[in-house]
Protein backbone atom coordinates (compact mmCIF):
# COMPACT_ATOMS: atom_id res chain seq x y z
CA UNK A 1 0.00 0.00 0.00
CA UNK A 2 1.31 3.45 -0.96
CA UNK A 3 0.61 6.78 0.65
CA UNK A 4 -2.82 7.07 2.31
CA UNK A 5 -4.47 10.41 2.99
CA UNK A 6 -6.06 10.34 6.46
CA UNK A 7 -8.06 12.84 8.47
CA UNK A 8 -7.52 13.74 12.11
CA UNK A 9 -10.47 11.54 13.04
CA UNK A 10 -8.84 8.52 11.35
CA UNK A 11 -5.52 9.14 13.11
CA UNK A 12 -7.31 9.45 16.43
CA UNK A 13 -9.09 6.13 15.81
CA UNK A 14 -5.79 4.41 15.04
CA UNK A 15 -4.33 5.62 18.36
CA UNK A 16 -7.33 4.47 20.41
CA UNK A 17 -7.67 1.09 18.63
CA UNK A 18 -3.95 0.42 19.10
CA UNK A 19 -4.42 0.92 22.84
CA UNK A 20 -7.36 -1.50 22.78
CA UNK A 21 -5.36 -4.19 20.97
CA UNK A 22 -2.44 -3.79 23.38
CA UNK A 23 -4.76 -4.17 26.38
CA UNK A 24 -4.30 -0.63 27.73
CA UNK A 25 -7.92 0.36 27.07
CA UNK A 26 -11.24 -1.45 27.07
CA UNK A 27 -13.72 -1.49 24.19
CA UNK A 28 -16.28 0.44 26.27
CA UNK A 29 -13.71 3.14 27.07
CA UNK A 30 -12.79 3.40 23.39
CA UNK A 31 -16.46 3.87 22.49
CA UNK A 32 -16.72 6.81 24.92
CA UNK A 33 -13.53 8.45 23.65
CA UNK A 34 -14.46 8.08 19.97
CA UNK A 35 -18.14 9.00 20.59
CA UNK A 36 -19.39 5.86 18.82
CA UNK A 37 -21.18 2.68 19.91
CA UNK A 38 -19.47 -0.44 21.21
CA UNK A 39 -20.64 -2.40 18.15
CA UNK A 40 -19.02 0.15 15.84
CA UNK A 41 -15.76 -0.15 17.81
CA UNK A 42 -15.82 -3.92 17.29
CA UNK A 43 -16.36 -3.43 13.53
CA UNK A 44 -13.42 -1.01 13.37
CA UNK A 45 -11.22 -3.49 15.27
CA UNK A 46 -11.94 -6.21 12.69
CA UNK A 47 -11.08 -3.88 9.81
CA UNK A 48 -7.98 -2.61 11.65
CA UNK A 49 -6.67 -6.19 12.17
CA UNK A 50 -7.28 -7.16 8.54
CA UNK A 51 -6.27 -4.06 6.58
CA UNK A 52 -4.32 -1.97 9.08
CA UNK A 53 -4.80 1.81 9.28
CA UNK A 54 -5.99 2.00 5.67
CA UNK A 55 -9.03 -0.08 6.55
CA UNK A 56 -10.40 2.71 8.75
CA UNK A 57 -10.78 5.11 5.80
CA UNK A 58 -14.32 5.62 4.56
CA UNK A 59 -15.05 3.29 1.63
CA UNK A 60 -16.69 6.04 -0.37
CA UNK A 61 -13.65 8.30 -0.39
CA UNK A 62 -12.57 9.19 -3.91
CA UNK A 63 -15.74 7.80 -5.50
CA UNK A 64 -18.62 9.72 -7.01
CA UNK A 65 -21.85 10.06 -5.05
CA UNK A 66 -24.64 7.57 -5.62
CA UNK A 67 -26.98 10.53 -6.21
CA UNK A 68 -24.79 12.27 -8.81
CA UNK A 69 -25.90 12.67 -12.41
CA UNK A 70 -23.88 11.58 -15.39
CA UNK A 71 -21.73 14.09 -17.23
CA UNK A 72 -23.96 13.94 -20.30
CA UNK A 73 -26.96 15.31 -18.46
CA UNK A 74 -24.84 18.07 -16.93
CA UNK A 75 -23.51 19.17 -20.31
CA UNK A 76 -26.98 19.05 -21.86
CA UNK A 77 -28.46 21.32 -19.16
CA UNK A 78 -25.62 23.82 -19.38
CA UNK A 79 -26.00 24.09 -23.15
CA UNK A 80 -29.71 25.02 -22.98
CA UNK A 81 -30.38 28.73 -23.50
CA UNK A 82 -33.96 29.98 -23.05
CA UNK A 83 -35.51 33.28 -22.12
CA UNK A 84 -36.29 34.17 -18.51
CA UNK A 85 -39.97 34.76 -19.18
CA UNK A 86 -40.25 31.46 -21.08
CA UNK A 87 -38.80 29.59 -18.13
CA UNK A 88 -41.09 31.45 -15.74
CA UNK A 89 -44.13 30.58 -17.87
CA UNK A 90 -43.19 26.91 -17.89
CA UNK A 91 -42.75 26.93 -14.11
CA UNK A 92 -46.12 28.66 -13.67
CA UNK A 93 -47.80 25.94 -15.72
CA UNK A 94 -46.20 23.23 -13.60
CA UNK A 95 -46.99 25.03 -10.34
CA UNK A 96 -43.32 25.61 -9.51
CA UNK A 97 -43.46 29.43 -9.54
CA UNK A 98 -45.46 31.79 -7.35
CA UNK A 99 -45.96 35.37 -8.39
CA UNK A 100 -45.22 38.27 -6.06
CA UNK A 101 -48.94 38.59 -5.35
CA UNK A 102 -49.23 34.89 -4.50
CA UNK A 103 -46.21 35.07 -2.19
CA UNK A 104 -47.74 37.82 -0.07
CA UNK A 105 -48.40 36.98 3.58
CA UNK A 106 -51.71 38.12 5.00
CA UNK A 107 -52.42 39.06 8.61
CA UNK A 108 -55.99 38.33 9.48
CA UNK A 109 -57.69 41.06 11.55
CA UNK A 110 -58.21 40.31 15.22
CA UNK A 111 -61.35 41.28 17.08
CA UNK A 112 -61.02 43.74 19.92
CA UNK A 113 -61.01 42.48 23.47
CA UNK A 114 -64.45 42.77 25.04
CA UNK A 115 -63.61 44.47 28.35
CA UNK A 116 -61.88 47.69 29.27
CA UNK A 117 -58.53 47.01 30.94
CA UNK A 118 -58.28 43.43 29.68
CA UNK A 119 -55.41 44.10 27.26
CA UNK A 120 -53.32 47.27 26.95
CA UNK A 121 -50.92 47.64 24.02
CA UNK A 122 -47.68 49.50 24.72
CA UNK A 123 -45.00 50.80 22.38
CA UNK A 124 -42.50 53.60 21.91
CA UNK A 125 -42.26 55.90 18.89
CA UNK A 126 -38.96 57.66 18.15
CA UNK A 127 -39.72 60.84 16.21
CA UNK A 128 -38.99 64.57 15.95
CA UNK A 129 -42.03 65.45 18.02
CA UNK A 130 -40.91 69.06 18.49
CA UNK A 131 -39.74 69.33 14.86
CA UNK A 132 -36.73 71.67 14.65
CA UNK A 133 -37.59 73.46 17.90
CA UNK A 134 -36.08 70.73 20.08
CA UNK A 135 -34.18 67.47 20.10
CA UNK A 136 -35.82 64.23 18.87
CA UNK A 137 -37.16 61.95 21.60
CA UNK A 138 -39.41 58.93 22.15
CA UNK A 139 -43.09 58.92 23.02
CA UNK A 140 -44.32 55.97 25.10
CA UNK A 141 -47.94 55.13 24.28
CA UNK A 142 -50.31 52.91 26.30
CA UNK A 143 -53.61 52.25 24.49
CA UNK A 144 -56.53 50.06 25.57
CA UNK A 145 -57.34 47.32 23.07
CA UNK A 146 -61.10 47.27 23.72
CA UNK A 147 -61.79 51.00 23.42
CA UNK A 148 -58.73 52.51 21.60
CA UNK A 149 -58.48 54.89 24.54
CA UNK A 150 -55.09 56.49 25.18
CA UNK A 151 -54.28 55.43 28.73
CA UNK A 152 -50.78 56.82 29.29
CA UNK A 153 -48.33 58.88 27.25
CA UNK A 154 -44.91 60.17 28.20
CA UNK A 155 -41.99 61.82 26.41
CA UNK A 156 -38.69 60.10 27.30
CA UNK A 157 -35.14 60.23 25.90
CA UNK A 158 -35.33 56.61 24.67
CA UNK A 159 -37.03 53.28 25.24
CA UNK A 160 -35.37 52.02 28.41
CA UNK A 161 -36.37 50.18 31.54
CA UNK A 162 -36.33 53.36 33.64
CA UNK A 163 -38.56 55.12 31.09
CA UNK A 164 -41.13 52.34 31.16
CA UNK A 165 -40.94 52.24 34.98
CA UNK A 166 -41.91 55.93 35.10
CA UNK A 167 -44.76 55.42 32.62
CA UNK A 168 -45.98 52.31 34.46
CA UNK A 169 -46.03 54.21 37.76
CA UNK A 170 -48.26 56.88 36.24
CA UNK A 171 -50.52 54.24 34.68
CA UNK A 172 -51.18 52.18 37.82
CA UNK A 173 -51.69 55.30 39.94
CA UNK A 174 -54.27 56.69 37.48
CA UNK A 175 -56.09 53.54 36.35
CA UNK A 176 -55.01 50.57 38.47
CA UNK A 177 -53.56 47.26 37.29
CA UNK A 178 -54.77 45.82 33.96
CA UNK A 179 -54.94 42.13 33.17
CA UNK A 180 -52.09 42.16 30.65
CA UNK A 181 -49.80 44.35 28.58
CA UNK A 182 -49.15 43.59 24.89
CA UNK A 183 -45.73 44.65 23.56
CA UNK A 184 -43.10 43.85 20.97
CA UNK A 185 -39.97 41.74 21.55
CA UNK A 186 -37.89 44.62 22.87
CA UNK A 187 -35.33 43.56 25.46
CA UNK A 188 -37.11 45.70 28.05
CA UNK A 189 -39.96 43.18 28.01
CA UNK A 190 -38.39 39.90 26.95
CA UNK A 191 -35.17 37.95 27.56
CA UNK A 192 -33.99 37.15 24.05
CA UNK A 193 -31.57 34.49 25.31
CA UNK A 194 -33.62 32.11 27.46
CA UNK A 195 -30.60 29.80 27.85
CA UNK A 196 -28.42 32.51 29.40
CA UNK A 197 -26.40 31.31 32.38
CA UNK A 198 -26.96 34.42 34.49
CA UNK A 199 -30.13 36.23 35.50
CA UNK A 200 -33.52 35.06 36.69
CA UNK A 201 -35.08 34.39 33.29
CA UNK A 202 -37.07 37.65 33.18
CA UNK A 203 -36.28 41.30 32.63
CA UNK A 204 -36.46 44.00 35.30
CA UNK A 205 -39.71 45.26 33.79
CA UNK A 206 -41.10 41.73 33.70
CA UNK A 207 -40.12 41.20 37.34
CA UNK A 208 -41.92 44.41 38.35
CA UNK A 209 -45.08 43.35 36.47
CA UNK A 210 -44.96 39.94 38.15
CA UNK A 211 -44.87 41.58 41.58
CA UNK A 212 -47.86 43.73 40.57
CA UNK A 213 -49.66 40.62 39.23
CA UNK A 214 -49.77 41.95 35.65
CA UNK A 215 -49.10 39.67 32.68
CA UNK A 216 -46.82 40.68 29.79
CA UNK A 217 -47.43 39.23 26.30
CA UNK A 218 -45.11 39.76 23.33
CA UNK A 219 -46.43 40.08 19.78
CA UNK A 220 -44.79 38.06 17.04
CA UNK A 221 -45.06 40.91 14.51
CA UNK A 222 -45.81 44.62 14.39
CA UNK A 223 -49.14 43.88 12.66
CA UNK A 224 -50.28 41.89 15.69
CA UNK A 225 -50.24 45.06 17.81
CA UNK A 226 -51.52 47.24 14.99
CA UNK A 227 -53.73 49.33 17.27
CA UNK A 228 -50.80 51.03 18.97
CA UNK A 229 -48.84 51.15 15.69
CA UNK A 230 -51.67 53.03 13.96
CA UNK A 231 -52.01 55.29 16.99
CA UNK A 232 -48.31 56.19 16.70
CA UNK A 233 -48.79 57.07 13.03
CA UNK A 234 -51.80 59.25 13.88
CA UNK A 235 -49.96 60.98 16.74
CA UNK A 236 -46.98 61.74 14.52
CA UNK A 237 -49.36 63.93 12.54
CA UNK A 238 -51.89 65.33 15.02
CA UNK A 239 -49.73 65.63 18.14
CA UNK A 240 -46.87 67.29 16.26
CA UNK A 241 -49.24 70.00 15.01
CA UNK A 242 -50.75 70.52 18.48
CA UNK A 243 -47.28 70.89 19.99
CA UNK A 244 -46.40 73.41 17.29
CA UNK A 245 -49.52 75.49 18.00
CA UNK A 246 -48.77 75.42 21.73
CA UNK A 247 -45.12 76.42 21.04
CA UNK A 248 -43.78 73.46 23.08
CA UNK A 249 -40.16 72.52 22.43
CA UNK A 250 -38.98 70.28 25.30
CA UNK A 251 -40.00 67.05 27.01
CA UNK A 252 -41.00 68.54 30.39
CA UNK A 253 -43.45 70.99 28.81
CA UNK A 254 -44.64 68.25 26.47
CA UNK A 255 -45.42 65.89 29.35
CA UNK A 256 -47.43 68.65 31.04
CA UNK A 257 -49.38 69.13 27.78
CA UNK A 258 -50.19 65.43 27.19
CA UNK A 259 -53.03 64.92 29.76
CA UNK A 260 -55.20 67.58 28.14
CA UNK A 261 -54.42 66.26 24.68
CA UNK A 262 -55.34 62.68 25.67
CA UNK A 263 -58.65 63.85 27.12
CA UNK A 264 -59.72 65.57 23.89
CA UNK A 265 -58.36 62.72 21.75
CA UNK A 266 -60.28 60.06 23.71
CA UNK A 267 -63.52 62.08 23.59
CA UNK A 268 -63.31 62.15 19.81
CA UNK A 269 -61.88 58.75 18.84
CA UNK A 270 -62.40 56.21 21.67
CA UNK A 271 -65.13 53.57 21.34
CA UNK A 272 -67.32 51.91 23.98
CA UNK A 273 -66.33 48.42 25.05
CA UNK A 274 -68.52 45.41 24.27
CA UNK A 275 -68.83 44.69 27.98
CA UNK A 276 -69.34 47.44 30.53
CA UNK A 277 -67.11 45.86 33.20
CA UNK A 278 -63.77 47.41 34.06
CA UNK A 279 -61.08 44.76 34.57
CA UNK A 280 -58.57 47.15 36.14
CA UNK A 281 -57.71 46.08 39.69
CA UNK A 282 -57.13 48.60 42.42
CA UNK A 283 -53.50 49.21 43.32
CA UNK A 284 -53.15 48.05 46.93
CA UNK A 285 -49.46 48.88 47.21
CA UNK A 286 -48.17 51.76 49.36
CA UNK A 287 -45.96 54.35 47.71
CA UNK A 288 -42.67 53.20 49.34
CA UNK A 289 -43.33 49.63 48.31
CA UNK A 290 -44.19 50.72 44.74
CA UNK A 291 -40.88 52.60 44.55
CA UNK A 292 -39.06 49.40 45.59
CA UNK A 293 -40.85 47.47 42.84
CA UNK A 294 -40.24 49.98 40.05
CA UNK A 295 -36.44 50.01 40.23
CA UNK A 296 -33.50 47.89 39.18
CA UNK A 297 -32.87 45.08 41.65
CA UNK A 298 -29.95 42.68 41.50
CA UNK A 299 -28.51 40.04 43.84
CA UNK A 300 -24.80 40.46 44.55
CA UNK A 301 -22.34 38.23 46.37
CA UNK A 302 -20.45 39.71 49.32
CA UNK A 303 -16.78 38.79 49.33
CA UNK A 304 -14.58 38.03 52.30
CA UNK A 305 -13.45 41.68 52.37
CA UNK A 306 -17.12 42.80 52.64
CA UNK A 307 -17.09 44.13 49.07
CA UNK A 308 -19.42 43.61 46.13
CA UNK A 309 -19.45 44.71 42.48
CA UNK A 310 -22.33 46.49 40.78
CA UNK A 311 -22.50 48.47 37.53
CA UNK A 312 -18.69 48.57 37.18
CA UNK A 313 -18.37 49.95 40.68
CA UNK A 314 -16.87 48.38 43.77
CA UNK A 315 -19.02 48.84 46.84
CA UNK A 316 -17.50 48.43 50.31
CA UNK A 317 -19.91 47.74 53.15
CA UNK A 318 -19.32 49.69 56.36
CA UNK A 319 -18.58 47.33 59.21
CA UNK A 320 -21.10 46.82 61.99
CA UNK A 321 -22.57 43.90 63.91
CA UNK A 322 -24.91 43.00 61.03
CA UNK A 323 -22.44 43.41 58.17
CA UNK A 324 -19.62 41.42 59.79
CA UNK A 325 -21.55 38.19 59.30
CA UNK A 326 -22.47 38.76 55.64
CA UNK A 327 -19.22 37.49 54.08
CA UNK A 328 -20.19 34.85 51.55
CA UNK A 329 -23.87 35.85 51.60
CA UNK A 330 -26.01 37.48 48.92
CA UNK A 331 -27.40 40.98 49.31
CA UNK A 332 -29.89 42.84 47.11
CA UNK A 333 -28.99 46.10 45.38
CA UNK A 334 -31.82 48.60 44.76
CA UNK A 335 -30.90 51.02 41.99
CA UNK A 336 -33.40 53.91 41.92
CA UNK A 337 -33.71 56.47 39.14
CA UNK A 338 -34.18 59.48 41.42
CA UNK A 339 -32.09 58.68 44.49
CA UNK A 340 -28.86 56.85 45.42
CA UNK A 341 -28.86 53.08 45.30
CA UNK A 342 -29.38 51.03 48.44
CA UNK A 343 -27.90 47.74 49.56
CA UNK A 344 -30.31 45.60 51.59
CA UNK A 345 -30.21 42.28 53.33
CA UNK A 346 -33.52 40.82 54.51
CA UNK A 347 -35.09 44.27 54.49
CA UNK A 348 -32.25 45.96 56.43
CA UNK A 349 -30.50 48.83 54.65
CA UNK A 350 -26.72 48.48 54.89
CA UNK A 351 -24.31 51.44 54.98
CA UNK A 352 -21.66 51.45 52.26
CA UNK A 353 -19.16 53.56 50.38
CA UNK A 354 -18.11 53.44 46.74
CA UNK A 355 -14.44 52.61 46.23
CA UNK A 356 -14.30 53.32 42.48
CA UNK A 357 -16.87 54.91 40.23
CA UNK A 358 -16.93 55.12 36.45
CA UNK A 359 -19.96 56.66 34.74
CA UNK A 360 -18.72 56.35 31.19
CA UNK A 361 -20.48 54.28 28.57
CA UNK A 362 -18.62 50.97 28.65
CA UNK A 363 -16.24 50.28 25.76
CA UNK A 364 -17.68 48.03 23.03
CA UNK A 365 -21.08 48.11 24.75
CA UNK A 366 -23.95 46.57 22.77
CA UNK A 367 -26.46 49.37 22.09
CA UNK A 368 -29.81 48.64 20.50
CA UNK A 369 -31.07 50.69 17.58
CA UNK A 370 -33.85 52.25 19.64
CA UNK A 371 -31.36 53.58 22.21
CA UNK A 372 -28.54 54.52 19.82
CA UNK A 373 -29.41 58.24 19.63
CA UNK A 374 -29.60 58.59 23.41
CA UNK A 375 -26.37 56.64 23.87
CA UNK A 376 -24.53 58.85 21.38
CA UNK A 377 -25.79 61.97 23.17
CA UNK A 378 -24.45 60.57 26.45
CA UNK A 379 -21.06 59.81 24.89
CA UNK A 380 -20.84 63.32 23.42
CA UNK A 381 -21.67 64.90 26.79
CA UNK A 382 -18.92 62.85 28.42
CA UNK A 383 -16.40 63.80 25.75
CA UNK A 384 -17.17 67.49 26.26
CA UNK A 385 -15.97 67.16 29.85
CA UNK A 386 -12.21 67.41 29.66
CA UNK A 387 -10.71 64.86 32.01
CA UNK A 388 -7.07 65.43 32.87
CA UNK A 389 -5.30 62.38 34.30
CA UNK A 390 -3.97 62.87 37.81
CA UNK A 391 -0.53 61.28 38.12
CA UNK A 392 1.13 61.19 41.53
CA UNK A 393 4.90 61.06 41.79
CA UNK A 394 6.72 59.09 44.44
CA UNK A 395 7.41 62.35 46.34
CA UNK A 396 3.69 63.09 46.41
CA UNK A 397 2.92 59.59 47.67
CA UNK A 398 5.32 59.86 50.65
CA UNK A 399 4.19 63.42 51.47
CA UNK A 400 7.45 65.18 50.54
CA UNK A 401 7.25 69.00 50.59
CA UNK A 402 9.86 71.12 48.90
CA UNK A 403 11.54 73.71 51.18
CA UNK A 404 13.09 76.98 49.87
CA UNK A 405 16.85 77.15 49.50
CA UNK A 406 18.74 78.72 52.44
CA UNK A 407 21.40 81.39 51.75
CA UNK A 408 24.41 81.54 54.10
CA UNK A 409 26.02 85.03 54.40
CA UNK A 410 28.58 86.77 56.72
CA UNK A 411 25.82 87.63 59.20
CA UNK A 412 24.61 84.04 59.41
CA UNK A 413 24.37 82.76 62.98
CA UNK A 414 23.48 79.26 63.91
CA UNK A 415 20.67 78.97 66.34
CA UNK A 416 21.82 76.84 69.17
CA UNK A 417 19.48 75.54 71.67
CA UNK A 418 19.93 77.10 75.09
CA UNK A 419 22.00 74.81 77.30
CA UNK A 420 20.11 74.13 80.50
CA UNK A 421 21.96 75.19 83.62
CA UNK A 422 22.49 72.64 86.36
CA UNK A 423 22.41 73.97 89.88
CA UNK A 424 24.90 72.25 92.20
CA UNK A 425 24.16 71.93 95.87
CA UNK A 426 26.60 71.12 98.55
General description of the model:
This protein is an alpha+beta fold and 426 residues long. Among the domains are: 49 residues; 150 residues, Nucleotidyltransferase, domain 5 (2-Layer Sandwich); 62 residues, no CATH class. The chain has twelve helices and twelve strands. It has a five-stranded mixed sheet, with helices on both faces. A four-stranded antiparallel sheet has the order 6-9-10-11, with no helix packed on it. Helix 7 links the parallel strand 4 and strand 5. The chain is extended.
Biggest sheet layout: 5 strands, mixed
Strand order of the largest sheet: 3-2-1-4-5
Q: What is the arithmetic mean of pLDDT? A: 84
Helix content: 25-40%
**How much strand?**
15-25%
Shape: extended
Number of helices: 12
Low-confidence stretches: 415-426
User: What is the CATH class name of the domain at 120-269?
Assistant: Alpha Beta
Radius of gyration: 37 Å
CATH topology of the domain at 120-269: Nucleotidyltransferase, domain 5
- The first-to-last residue Cα distance is 124 Å
- Secondary-structure content class: alpha+beta
- What is the CATH architecture annotation of the domain at 120-269? 2-Layer Sandwich
* CATH homologous superfamily title of the domain at 120-269: Ribonuclease H-like superfamily/Ribonuclease H
Total strands: the figure is 12
InterPro entries: Integrase_cat-core (IPR001584), ISNCY_transpos (IPR047797), RNaseH-like_sf (IPR012337), RNaseH_sf (IPR036397)
GO molecular function: nucleic acid binding
Organism: Edaphobacter modestus
Protein name: Integrase-like protein
